[in-house]
Amino acid sequence: MSDPDAATARVRSAASDLGLDIEIRERPEAGSLHEAAGLLGIEPQKIVKTLVVKRSDDTYLFALIPGDRQIAWAKLRAVVGVNKLQLPDPERALAATGYERGTIVPLGSSTAWPVYADETISGRVALGAGAHGYSLFADSDALLAALAATVADISQPIG
Questions:
Q1: CA distance 78 to 153
Q2: Which residue in 91, 115, 138, 143 has its CB near the most CB atoms, within 10 A?
Q3: pTM score of the predicted model
Q4: How far apart are CA 64 and CA 151, in angstroms?
Q5: pLDDT in tens, 40-61
């Protein structure tokens, strides 16, 4: 979705429909997660990455992972109850969500895929907001409840 106003309006509308209080802020482009955290004035773990994950049957799910961690594939497969998961290419992620990579958020996705969130997500967090140059802020407990997320140990430290 190339129109930032339309994308952020879609996110705001979805949040409103769920009764979720969010804040969307414009921000400069960042070259890395640490740079983005600095621009937003938060710690890297407070940036929650929304990853689109493809199942073998061509359905998808969202994995919410703190910025300082990465998906633990074996743990996620066990929680989802499948033998194979993978990250789709950017075109498939766009087709599955309506959002470009780097802007993806479960709110307002073209399809309401199930959400799996790492258990270490806490407090006020920032996510993509549907358009480049914007961040969404929300209370993590309210966000995960509104998304009916399955919360589990699905990540590991990077490296």
A1: 10
A2: 143
A3: 0.95
A4: 9
A5: 999 999 999 999 999 999 999 9
